[in-house]
Automatic annotation (TrEMBL), chains A, B:
Source organism of this protein record: Rubritalea tangerina
Ligand binding (Zn(2+) 2): 96, 133, 167
Single GO term (MF): dihydroorotase activity
One Pfam family per UniProt: Amidohydro_2
Subunit-level organization: Homodimer.
N6-carboxylysine, modified sites: 96
Binding site for Zn(2+) 1: 14, 16, 96, 239
Protein keywords: Hydrolase, Metal-binding, Pyrimidine biosynthesis, Zinc
Domain spans labelled Amidohydrolase-related: 89-289
Keyword Chaperone annotated: no
UniProt-recorded name of the protein: Dihydroorotase
Designated gene of the protein: pyrC
Amino acid sequence: MAKQLTLQSPLDMHLHLRDGDMLKLVTPLTAEGFAGAVIMPNLVPPVDNLDKLLEYKERILGACEGHKFDPFMTLFFRQYTEQELANAKDHMIGIKLYPAGATTNSEAGVKAIDAVEPVFKMMEEMEIPLLVHGETHGFVMDREKEFLASYDYLASKFPKLKITMEHITTADAVAMLDRHENLRATVTLQHLIITLDDVAGGLLNPHLFCKPIAKRPEDREALLQAALEAHPKLMFGSDSAPHPLEKKESCGCAAGVFTAPLAIARLAQLFDKHEKLDNLQAFLSGNAQTQYGVTPPKKLVTVTKEPFTVPEAYTGFQQHVVPMHAGEELEWRISQID
Amino acid sequence: MAKQLTLQSPLDMHLHLRDGDMLKLVTPLTAEGFAGAVIMPNLVPPVDNLDKLLEYKERILGACEGHKFDPFMTLFFRQYTEQELANAKDHMIGIKLYPAGATTNSEAGVKAIDAVEPVFKMMEEMEIPLLVHGETHGFVMDREKEFLASYDYLASKFPKLKITMEHITTADAVAMLDRHENLRATVTLQHLIITLDDVAGGLLNPHLFCKPIAKRPEDREALLQAALEAHPKLMFGSDSAPHPLEKKESCGCAAGVFTAPLAIARLAQLFDKHEKLDNLQAFLSGNAQTQYGVTPPKKLVTVTKEPFTVPEAYTGFQQHVVPMHAGEELEWRISQID
């Protein structure tokens, strides 16, 4: 009898669904296996007011094809007024900050953050979480590490503000989790598995190119250990980011790895390999429920240790997206969803 | 009156010319501006005996389109006999070692080298230089650094063996130059200009993907300073490596940057920017003549500070190769060749 595990309401705490035809293609691929997901607001133009947020949520729900699925919406950070925040609060899970003003210099990064501190203050008082893409504009391998001083600053200055370090990729970021009570983090599937070697160590692999870029073996190891131990402040966030094939396999490939449809099965394989299957529930849902105080719809997802070949691509609505592990055989698969 | 400099017999001390149609396309692009070049032997199958070497040299000379050009031939390292070395000695400039047996562990790297020490001994006695691709099979950013212990070992154990550290990319390798009298190095154009940021810091750029991969800003700075100062043991070696377009702009891009046709003009721009034009002659030819004791054919190459747009591609013989800086305007150009 094949090994099995039933997961309760898996959550993806960092997800890109895009819009239009791409949204129609990829939304059901997440909504089928996940009970909910934190939806990134970086559309063009960004989701930066309540109307846009509610309309975007409608489009997502309209694309769910009947699956029970809660899109946890976010706003794109800007100088919001108190009234705007009050109106939006009940419709979102947090506000996502892309520190565009930050530079290679972490002091300057903090300074850029400094200018918008009144918004952080209001968010802290209204208990609206802050989700951060924590990278400076420095050397690609140093960007996250250089940003950590900004996390230190923010977490200290706003001790009641819940701050999520999104898609962490370094051992240094893992260590931050134990430094401030109000810091937590998401980590992707790929950063538990790959290093820069997989992107650029042999042939260049555009389908594993993402931001933040995959780092060193010791970084992957620290992330993996924290995930396997289900560190209570570490949540799964796929950062699954679909791009049309022509934007991946070309000169000037866009950053992003598409993992949504295979993430649960691949995580089961990974946790099983390290004999930590018992911790997968917390990493995939429990930690997020505790950290965010959310209660997702009930969904039972059974994974079984049976081979599953990842499709070469997911197509539809004139879209063509190549997933991680395209064409490869995984050892686990989703066998039942109730 | 535009700034000018006349270079005498520029040399490219590390060059890939491939074979067949590609050789026909790229050979004249080097032979026009350079007086000579060290030709890499990594064909499929490799150039690993005198007959193959002489035949390859013929094909290169046949593709020079009348340009004065000396191909300095190399053999692909293997367990050569003393007789083979004696026969080949006068027809080549050295033997190129790709340490396929080396691993992440530099001790194991030395061990792998250990097995072929009799060949090194013969080369030392016969004054045949050893050219080394110095990378382990470790993490992509560490491969060169991990290999440095092998250089240390070889240079100490065979003090009369002239060893060239090919295409160095790190500050640590630059420091090695002053540690052993018998170590010297080549450096490419791209490693004086780019870092990993240019390959994977923004969009992924396959045309700047090469091995060894471009490293950190402080590495580039150390390489650039050594080049600008015309460190007497540092020679220009383009490692210009043409790949057909379909092998660059695709999933699984091959490593190699094609710089041959623009290297001299781009180096003039670089040395001019840093007010070191006076040192370009040594870096581009003098150091190599001293290190290898070669006398290339006389060729006067005048570069002028006038704009030059790099072609989008070089095509011919059913080949299509995209150069570095494709479509960009350089500030210097080759204005005359005598």
